[in-house]
TrEMBL record:
<keyword id="KW-0067">ATP-binding</keyword>
<dbReference type="GO" id="GO:0006437">
    <property type="term" value="P:tyrosyl-tRNA aminoacylation"/>
</dbReference>
<dbReference type="InterPro" id="IPR002305">
    <property type="entry name" value="aa-tRNA-synth_Ic"/>
</dbReference>
<dbReference type="GO" id="GO:0004831">
    <property type="term" value="F:tyrosine-tRNA ligase activity"/>
</dbReference>
<protein>
    <recommendedName>
        <fullName>Tyrosine--tRNA ligase</fullName>
        <ecNumber>6.1.1.1</ecNumber>
    </recommendedName>
</protein>
<keyword id="KW-0648">Protein biosynthesis</keyword>
<dbReference type="Pfam" id="PF00579">
    <property type="entry name" value="tRNA-synt_1b"/>
</dbReference>
<dbReference type="InterPro" id="IPR014729">
    <property type="entry name" value="Rossmann-like_a/b/a_fold"/>
</dbReference>
<comment type="similarity">
    <text>Belongs to the class-I aminoacyl-tRNA synthetase family.</text>
</comment>
<dbReference type="GO" id="GO:0005524">
    <property type="term" value="F:ATP binding"/>
</dbReference>
<dbReference type="GO" id="GO:0005829">
    <property type="term" value="C:cytosol"/>
</dbReference>
<keyword id="KW-0547">Nucleotide-binding</keyword>
<keyword id="KW-0436">Ligase</keyword>
<dbReference type="InterPro" id="IPR002307">
    <property type="entry name" value="Tyr-tRNA-ligase"/>
</dbReference>
<dbReference type="InterPro" id="IPR024088">
    <property type="entry name" value="Tyr-tRNA-ligase_bac-type"/>
</dbReference>
<keyword id="KW-0030">Aminoacyl-tRNA synthetase</keyword>
Length: 201
């Protein structure tokens, strides 16, 4: 893992704008769907956010220069920023760079799962205990549990489909299955006994 501070902290803002700002137009930025949606909702769009697109594009350029990175992966909400990085690499260095996005995972109420939505889930046990990780999945809403079983576990689909009609107390059993399976994938099955002992005490 690398830290973009390694190259961003030494940049002079005026030189950066001169050398890289010329490769970005407001027209192009406004053409991205995520920006169009924000403007249609009359949501504020700050100068900082336009700069973020340029900085993320520059990060990809530097990752290519330093580590020969050619593919950037991200959520579909980052498409504009990612494609800007591909274009910057082509314009500045003649590099052939690629972007691959995946749909954002949202909850049933339309909120995205992720750090910006206040739902960050650390994978490191020193940042989030195995118990708290388990609780995150246990607290999944009734409406999301079946979809999350399909997305975040390795259970056979046939087994998950048997849970689709569960209601009331049974849906809570499905949530425990989700929590157990997701926690097992990350931390191993050995931690489940301690988690269940804590819950049952």
């Amino acid at each position: 893992m690398v830290n973009n501070d390694d190259w961003l902290s030494s940049i002079s803002y005026l030189e950066f704008l001169r050398d890289y700002g010329q490769h970005f137009t407001i027209n192009r930025m406004l053409s991205f769907e995520s920006v169009k949606q924000r403007l249609a909702r009359e949501a504020p769009f700050s100068f900082l956010e336009f700069n973020y697109m340029i900085l993320q594009a520059y990060d990809f350029l530097e990752l290519n220069r330093r580590y020969d990175a050619k593919l950037q992966l991200g959520g579909s909400d980052q498409w504009g920023n990612m494609i800007s990085g591909c274009e910057l690499g082509r314009r500045v260095d003649g590099a052939q760079l690629y972007a691959l996005t995946a749909p954002l995972i949202t909850t049933s109420d339309g909120k995205k799962m992720g750090k910006t939505a206040g739902g960050a889930v650390w994978l490191n046990a020193d940042k989030l205990s195995e118990y708290d990780y388990w609780q995150f999945w246990r607290n999944t809403s009734d409406e999301d549990v079946i979809r999350f079983l399909k997305l975040f576990t390795e259970l056979p689909l046939e087994e998950i489909e048997t849970m689709e009609g569960w209601k009331g107390a049974d849906i809570n059993k499905a949530k425990i299955v989700l929590a157990d399976e997701a926690t097992t994938l990350l931390h191993g099955r050995d931690c489940l006994k301690a988690i269940h002992d804590t819950i049952d005490s």
